[in-house]
Amino acid sequence: MNPYVSVTLVMCGVIFLALAATAYMAVYFTRKAKADLQRALTPLSVALGGEADVEEALVEGRYAGKLAFGRMAHAEGGPVRVFQVELIDAAGGEKWLYVAYPEKGTTEFRPEGSPMYEKLGELHRGDLAAGLVVRSDWFQLDYSPEGGYLRLTTPMSTRKDIPSEDDFRRQLAVLDKLSDENRVMQEAVIWARQAPGND
Predict the structure, then answer these.
(1) Is the pLDDT of residue 33 over 80?
(2) pLDDT tens, 52-84?
(3) Mean pLDDT confidence for 18-22
(4) What's residue 26's pLDDT?
(5) Is residue 19 included in any domain, yes or no?
(6) Distance from C-alpha of 13 to C-alpha of 173, rounded to nearest angstrom
(7) 49-86 burial string, b = 16+ CB within 10 Å, else e?
(8) The three-state (H, E, C) secondary structure of the chain, written as one string
(9) How many domains does the chain have?
(10) Within a domain: residue 178?
(11) Among 23, 3, 70, which Cα is nearest to 42's?
């Protein structure tokens, strides 16, 4: 047999084996990642009395009678992966955004200078980061009247940053209190606008 043909056949065999090994490893690691994600999400779905969807990296159910979600997502405008906890409580009114940097001890609220900030007592807790079990450099709370949700967003370094069931329950408890405060505040804003003389 021609030595060039022999070398070519051997090289083809090596390439085929390498491709087969790569495909096997891809399947193995995908299955392992899904199994790890299932293990992390299942306790959260129990906390909500709902379901976990590994394909969407999402849990959904109810907390204190409100629709609730937990999900992995990508941060808007960047490659950062985040974990979001949402309570659905469509109170109407105006949107707001609160960002805290616990290590620096600084916060931001938008719209800047809005009187809404003073009426949301949960945002003024000295132990808010601890209450939300936030261990990252920053976290964000926001309310969207269009989406009808109140949401906590925290950055993730790895999938291990998905909260435990206990931490998830604590986050939901804070969001529930904050959603009640938000509803009272938003209703007051709406009533004030509708009052006679404010046309």
Answers:
(1) no
(2) 999 999 999 999 999 999 999 988 777 789 999
(3) 65
(4) 59
(5) no
(6) 59
(7) ebebebeebbbbbebeebbbbbbbeeeeeeeebbbbbb
(8) CCHHHHHHHHHHHHHHHHHHHHHHHHHHHHHHHHHHHHHHHHHHHHHHCCEEECCCCEEEEEECCEEEEEEEEECCCCCCEEEEEEEECCCCCCCEEEEEECCCCEEEEECCCCCCHHHCHHHHCCCHHHHCCCCCCCEEEEEECCCCEEEEEEEECCHHHCCCHHHHHHHHHHHHHHHHHHHHHHHHHHHHHHCCCCC
(9) 1
(10) yes
(11) 70
Angle at 153 between CA 38 and CA 52, to 5 degrees: 20
For the record, the structure tokens of 64 come out as 């204190």
Residue that is written with structure tokens 């469509």 in the block:
90
- Token couple for 138: 């920053």
Q: Is residue 31 part of a domain?
A: no
Angle between helices 165-194 and 3-48 (to 10 degrees): 60
> 48 and 59 in contact (C-beta within 8 Å)?
yes
Which domain CATH number covers 57? 3.30.1460
